[in-house]
Amino acid sequence: MTTIPFHDPAPVLRLHNLKVQFVGSPVSVLDGISLTIKSGETLALVGESGCGKSITSLALMGLLPSSAQILSGEMQFRSHNLRQLSPREYADLRGNELAMIFQEPMTSLNPSFTLGDQLSEAVMRHQHVSRHIARDIALQILEKVQIPAAEMRLKAYPHQLSGGMRQRVMIAMALINNPRLLIADEPTTALDVTIQAQILALLNTLKAETGTAVLMITHDLGVVAEVAQQVAVMYAGQVVEQGSVEAIFADPQHPYTIGLMGSIPSLGARKGQLSTIPGTVPLPEAMPKGCRFATRCPFAQSRCHAEKPALQPLGRGHQAACFRVPLEQHIALGETA
Ligand SMILES: Nc1ncnc2c1ncn2[C@@H]1O[C@H](COP(=O)(O)OP(=O)(O)OP(=O)(O)O)[C@@H](O)[C@H]1O
Ligand code: SF4
Ligand SMILES: [Mg+2]
Fold first, then answer.
1. pLDDT by residue (tens digit) across 253-282?
2. Where in the chain are the domains?
3. Reported pTM
């Protein structure tokens, strides 16, 4: 009898209308974020600096600074309602089913302990195995992330590694307990292009082997194209467009996405990195009441300054939050404002 592989259609992660605010701030730093990630899928979260990418990941990990408060919304991770977990339950999930590679390279590595000790500790915290077995698992994961002379490296300290090797160890640390969701916040930004390509290839291989879902935070459209199947574009605490990689690259609809991609000549040339859009993200105290992008949008009309656009379906899961989609008709007419 042949076994039919079980395909779990339920999303690994579902964020719905998540709102987060810093104490004393007049506006939400996350203003109604909704995202879904399925098993084995990578969702890239892109947007300019300060748009709320890291705050989204910290909210998910239960690691928001104490000055930030979740106002409303749902965070469902597998069978766990993340908003109802006790600190103890959250700590049990982190580094186990839910893992993160932090933006700051040394965040997850302790400079005073050897790699072997740190990796073994991470195993023993979540799996009931002896120190000896934990060390074997540590060795296997170092080999899996292609650390040369892995056995010897178990005795090394983090500062004895190159940047690329340290990043591999961070990936090993994040994956050692087979997480169902891996959050990677700019995991390759600090690395040179060759090492970056190797690390991305490694993440792709490991994801294919394990079916881990990945939330990849990045500024780099080259990284998006390399690893992601889905993309969510954030601006000033909101998701303004989301869809498949194909839809977002071939048919970006939100003026902000179009600007980032450099697809409109006046907004910059197409290149690997996100393009620069004239102007800056509004400060919280000057956040527009209507569309948050209105102060920088070449297509803004009076309605945009008064009303908030909601995400509109454009077919096949592609959505954009703009009153003027589809934009082709305005661009064809040479129209802007
Ligand atoms: N501890 C804090 N107190 C007050 N505001 C904060 C704090 N941490 C972050 N912010 C604000 O929250 C917003 C979102 O920050 P976040 O770190 O999520 O941005 P990001 O999209 O990850 O940017 P980058 O690409 O630079 O990493 C920013 O405007 C930032 O100023
Ligand atoms: S709603 Fe208006 S201001 Fe906002 S992106 Fe669309 S056209 Fe621009
Ligand atoms: Mg960040």
1. 999 999 888 754 433 334 456 667 888 899
2. 11-266+275-329
3. 0.91
